[in-house]
Amino acid sequence: MTPRIRLIAGVALLVFGFALLGWAIYAGLNPTVPFEARLAPISADAAKEVAAFDLSADRLQQIEISAKDERRPVADGIIARDESGRLTPLVWRNEVTQPIFFSDASASDLSKVLAAIREHVPQDAVVLAWWDLSRAIRLVAGRAAPLDDAQARGLLMPAAWSAAAASERARWGAGAPVASVENFTRFIDALLDTDEARASESLKKLADGKPAYVAVRMSDVWKLAAARPQKLSIAYKDFAATGVSHGLIKSAQQWLRDEKIDGGFAVEPMGGATRLHFFERKSDGDRLIARLLPFSTSLSSLLTRFSLVYQHKGWWIWRLPNY
User: Fold this and answer.
1) Residue ranges per domain, the chain?
2) To pair with 285 at 20 to 30 A between CA atoms, which of 68, 140, 204, 228?
3) Which residues, including other chains, have CB under 8 Å from residue 61's CB and lie 6 or more apart?
4) Residue 258, pLDDT above cutoff 90
5) Rounded CA gap, 309 and 292, in Å?
6) Tens digits of per-residue pLDDT, 145-167?
């Protein structure tokens, strides 16, 4: 090979190397989004589905989440916008096993929960809840729910979609005040606290001296784990069943023993199956969120600073004492 040919070959390899590097940088800055979220005006049939919320049609939209290589949408729902443009999921349906953004919620179930909040929560009180439920409480139930999150923490997304997580959090966090982040961080910290007295005092401070209620849902455990994976470790296993029974719980307990998992667990009907939610670390069962929900570890440590006022399926509403 002549010097001239070697020079040309070397330059060609150098150019090719820079081209590969440029492509890698471009790919890193512009990841391929593995799904598409489409918003559309609400149809007449969908409007009837959420008629109980008494919201005008111009505030309502339908959303559909489609993934690559999937022939049908992986999730769809009905959302509302408030005066600031914040998105509030009112109905959510997942067509795959893993929740996409939010857990399943029907209009009838959410309507019952919001009606119970109107009934049990005085007008001068506040309800502390995850940002999506807080928006629904303000919009539909007409009660003060001061928490929100401009960072939209806790969106449930498959690990393969992590490259698009920031853009989705920006979508769902749009319209929320930047100052909301600090108080919502305190809410997260309180739910993850293992000291009930300290956690209850933190929550009362968020209520700013007003009577305080706390509304939680089973999916909040997953939202907390998504927001603070280093603090909370949760997993699940589905058992074929149409409901929760003593025999099923025994089977679940045996499976946990076989797998040498000693963390707390809770069971939840999921259509034609029952989902076993379980902590992968035993210590996570001591956190406040585990005690506000029906985990096995909460049965041996009854709450002393929270009073249950309402429960429907996966939703639980507690009252904090005034003292």
Assistant:
1) 35-226, 232-303
2) 204
3) 39, 40, 41, 42, 78, 79, 80, 81
4) yes
5) 12
6) 999 999 999 999 998 898 899 99
- Residues sharing a CB contact under 8 Å with residue 233, sequence separation 6 or more, in sequence order: 225, 279, 280, 281, 284
Which burial class, exposed, middle or buried, applies to 80 when counting CB atoms under 10 A from its CB (0-12, 13-18, 19+)?
A: buried
- Whole-Å CA distances, 71 to 66, 113, 138, 223: 8, 34, 36, 28
**Range 122-133 average pLDDT:** 98
Is pLDDT of 269 > 80? yes
How far is it, in rounded angstroms, from Cα 290 to Cα 293? 5
CA 67/CA 160 separation, integer angstroms: 11
Q: What is the pLDDT of residue 29?
A: 41
Instruction: Give the pLDDT score at 240.
Output: 82
Q: Using CA atoms, how far apart are residues 119 and 113, in angstroms rounded to an integer? A: 10
Those residues with Cβ within 8 angstroms of residue 124's Cβ, 6 or more apart along the chain or in another chain: 210, 211
pLDDT at 243 over 70: no
Own/partner contacts of 68-75, CB < 8 Å, gap of 24 or more, are 68/34, 68/35, 74/35, 74/100, 75/99, 75/100, 75/101
Structure token pair of residue 214: 């706390």
Tens of pLDDT, residue by residue over 93-105, are 999 988 999 999 9
Tell me the two tokens of residue 258: 């076989």
Give the C-alpha separation, 320 to 9, whole Å: 75
Residue pLDDT, tens place only, 40-87: 999 999 999 999 999 999 999 999 999 987 889 999 999 999 999 999
Confidence bin at 10 (pLDDT 50/70/90)? very low
Instruction: Locate 169 and state its tokens.
Output: 């959090």
- What distance in Å separates the CA atoms of residue 295 and residue 287, rounded to the nearest whole number? 11
Cross-strand partners of 102: 100
51 SS3 class: helix
Give me the phi and psi of 117, to 5 degrees please: -65, -40
Per-residue tokens: 104: 């399943």
